[in-house]
């Protein structure tokens, strides 16, 4: 039996989907295939690595280079990036819009990250706002929200939501008592605000395709906040109930919408929460090792099976 015939047999038996059969058959025949997603992620990672290297160079050699040269280089990069984006952007639309040039999104991401580096350098060297980093984070979040919606970029939207989360965290750190509980409460509030804001903007048809980014971040923050309550020594039973409800909701959403990420969130956070209670008082290293070995393998097998099911047509 030839490979193509075997692939056809597997499709008829339901082992693989029609899309998987067509993809594997095209690979066997040597037909070209798209690497756009992989290249996209690689280029974003390259921009991130470049800015990380830039930040390391500045932190290491700033004394030798001098403030004027460092700020000049950062300002030139920042100005050039944003000038490129604003000069080549198409007219704004509330719907999803394609990038006007192949490098447009990466230049925007570069400019956004350079903005962060320059702000950090200014504050560390000149203390413009006397260490009030929460104001920097709030201003940065507002700028990134504007850029994300103006230029339709999910990566910059993620930076905006992360900056907003940082602002929440720094505001809480100014309180001297009960910080753990305060962080948890405001993380829950943050996830609620992000989720509701994403739903409202989707309802208003204002970049509705951004809703997935809002929901992913809100879900992770919510589950992490509840999980931190499970780790507490007292009152963790109630938090475990909340965690199971939240994981069940994430699982139901993922299965209904056929979005595997939410199934994975439910599995991973639920596994960590339940495991933390089951082995909390365990002292036998062999038992702990056996538990994690068996349950981790079972978890991986389950997720693989679910992922394969997601690849099949209904």
Automatic annotation (TrEMBL):
Keyword field contains Transmembrane helix: yes
Residue ranges of every copy of the DUF2157 domain listed in the record: 9-155
Record flagged with keyword Amino-acid biosynthesis: no
Protein name as it appears in the record: DUF2157 domain-containing protein
Record organism: Granulicella mallensis
Membrane-spanning segments: 41-62, 68-86, 98-121, 133-149, 156-176, 182-201, 213-231, 237-255, 262-279, 285-304
UniProt xrefs under InterPro entries: DUF2157 (IPR018677)
Keywords of the record: Membrane, Transmembrane, Transmembrane helix
């Amino acid at each position: 039996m030839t490979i193509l015939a075997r692939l056809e047999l597997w499709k008829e038996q339901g082992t693989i989907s029609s899309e998987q059969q067509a993809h594997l058959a095209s690979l066997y025949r040597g037909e070209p295939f798209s690497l756009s997603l992989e290249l996209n992620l690689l280029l974003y990672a390259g921009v991130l690595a470049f800015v990380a290297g830039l930040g390391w160079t500045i932190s290491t050699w700033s004394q030798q280079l001098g403030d004027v040269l460092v700020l000049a280089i950062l300002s030139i990069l920042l100005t050039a990036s944003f000038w490129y984006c604003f000069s080549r952007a198409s007219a704004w639309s509330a719907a999803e819009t394609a990038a006007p040039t192949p490098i447009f999104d990466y230049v925007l991401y570069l400019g956004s990250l350079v903005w962060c580096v320059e702000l950090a350098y200014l504050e560390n060297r000149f203390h413009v706002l006397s260490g009030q980093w929460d104001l920097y984070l709030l201003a940065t979040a507002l700028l990134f929200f504007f850029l994300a919606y103006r230029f339709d970029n999910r990566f910059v939207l993620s930076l905006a939501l992360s900056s907003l989360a940082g602002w929440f965290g720094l505001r809480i750190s100014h309180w001297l008592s009960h910080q753990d509980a305060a962080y948890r409460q405001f993380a829950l509030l943050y996830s609620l605000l992000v989720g509701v804001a994403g739903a409202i903007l989707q309802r208003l048809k204002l970049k509705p395709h951004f809703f997935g980014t809002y929901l992913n971040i809100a879900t992770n923050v919510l589950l992490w906040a509840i999980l931190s309550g499970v780790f507490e020594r007292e009152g963790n039973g109630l938090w475990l109930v909340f965690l199971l409800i939240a994981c069940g909701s994430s699982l139901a959403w993922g299965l209904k919408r056929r979005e595997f990420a939410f199934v994975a969130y439910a599995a991973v956070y639920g596994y960590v929460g339940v495991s933390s209670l089951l082995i909390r008082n365990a002292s036998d290293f062999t038992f702990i090792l056996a538990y994690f070995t068996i349950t981790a393998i079972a978890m991986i097998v389950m997720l693989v099976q679910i992922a394969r099911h997601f690849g099949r047509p209904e």
